[in-house]
Specification:
The structure is a single chain. This protein is an alpha+beta fold. It has one domain. The chain is built from 4 helices and 7 strands. Strand 5 and strand 6 form a beta hairpin. The longest helix has 14 residues. It is globular and about 65 Å long.
Length: 170
């Protein structure tokens, strides 16, 4: 984390597997996509080829840490309840010897979506392993606090200052 303070209450170490597939395009040679996240971190160097088929190669892209925060338990819960729990892998194009830098892995769908705003990052969901489903389920059971939805009332004085009289619908 290099000096960045984190409020995470739990951390899960993971390894990311990506696939490089031959592209059928005259503009690019390969298509890349994350295909799996495994629990733990191997003693293998990042970008080590793992398996090679006719037009695809699997690589160990590196390791990351899934951070779990008490304030995001509602997002984790909806992820697990979706029927297909996912982890979002974020890869950033790299100009060094490797095509991408593994930026993050998250179990929070909102955070995964927020990473798509960068534009050039490769952000893909992959299936969540059962061991991580169980760990996140335990985290939710321990830390989730149900927060009731509170509808805010319009500030009619502020609406009058804006000149809309406060009568328009939001």
């Amino acid at each position: 984390m290099s000096g960045i303070s984190s409020t995470a209450l739990a951390r899960i170490a993971v390894a990311v597997i990506v696939e490089r597939r031959s592209a059928r395009s005259r503009w690019i040679d390969f298509m890349w996509r994350p295909v799996a996240v495994l629990v733990g971190t191997p003693e293998t160097a990042p970008w080590t080829p793992l398996d090679e088929a006719q037009d695809a190669t699997l690589f160990y892209a590196g390791d990351a840490v899934i951070e779990l925060h008490r304030t995001e338990t509602a997002n984790y819960r909806s992820n697990l309840a979706s029927g297909t729990p996912s982890l979002w892998v974020i890869l950033r194009p790299d100009t060094s010897q490797h095509p991408f830098k593994l930026l993050a892995v998250t179990a929070d769908p909102a955070e995964g979506e927020a990473f798509t705003d960068a534009g050039s990052d490769l952000v893909e969901p992959v299936p969540m392993p059962a061991a991580i489903v169980a760990a996140i389920g335990d985290f939710i059971a321990e830390h989730h606090i149900e927060r009731p939805f509170v509808k805010r009332r319009r500030d009619r004085a502020a609406a009058a200052r804006r000149g809309d009289g406060g009568d328009r619908e939001e």
